Amino acid sequence: MTDTVSSKKPRYILGTVTPVGVNLLPMSQPQPLLPDDILRIVSTLNLTDYTEERVQEAIDHRYWKCVDDLMQQGAQSITLAGFPVSAQLSRDRVLELLEKTRQKTGVTVDTHAEASVAALKHFGARRIAVASRWSKPLNDLVVAYLQHAGFEVLTITSVGQWAQQAFSMSIEEGVKLAFQLGRQAMKQAPDAQALFLAGGAWRSLAAVPILEEDFKIPVVTNPITQPWRLMAAGVAPYVQGWGRLLAGQS
Question: What is the domain class of 2-111 according to CATH?
Fold first, then answer.
């Protein structure tokens, strides 16, 4: 069930519950965002899609096994990855799940969705544009989640993706979509205070600094919020060249 991403003796062990195994992700990030002495371990829910039925089944039957698996390997924090997973659950249930996980494990717990909420609030943004690849049913859930967290979603894009399409993208398709949909969202909502590039499978990190330069507002994509949490906590150093959030700017 578990994939180990690094083999060096760790200073800190970062655990992640992922929707699918790392072998199914279409590409890696352009560069490591965390130092080599932070060990990243993952345990997968083996999701086949982001539908309500599949997400509920994965959480009910495999989430706690993943948590136990990570804790047995010494995880010092656990993050549930995948914004569609949290959106399908609803924010109320996510917050409940986090509290139960915290009580059971005693370690820091988080989700990509809650880390994204924190990152957007870090910039003081309330009115946001969302660049999304997902289908309308998923988008509606994402908007509901963000609204629950206090944001006004001015626009959200779509190209109709579900999990299968998301995980089958090539690196070229992912980069192209990140720029295309980021710019489309800002064209539709030029007064947005921040741009949120929702999702991890398209590996949108490379688009962040360029879109920030183009539109002069913070750009957040949920996979970078997990390392940002460690940076903000003083566990890892900030990094330059990948946008305001990872550089420690406000």
Answer: alpha beta
The gap from C-alpha 152 to its chain's centroid, in whole angstroms, comes to 19
Residue 59 gets which letter from DSSP?
A: I
At 3, the pLDDT band (50, 70, 90 cuts) reads very low
pLDDT in tens, 100-119: 999 999 999 999 999 999 99
Residues 235 and 229: their CA atoms lie apart, in Å, by: 9
pLDDT confidence bin for 6, thresholds 50/70/90: very low
Domain ranges of the chain: 2-111, 115-224
**Per the structure block, which two tokens stand in for 127?**
């009115």
pTM over 0.85, yes/no = yes
Element housing 194 (H / E): strand 194-197
Residue 131 has, within 13 A of its CA and on its CB side, a CA count of 30
* Domain 115-224 classification at class level: alpha beta
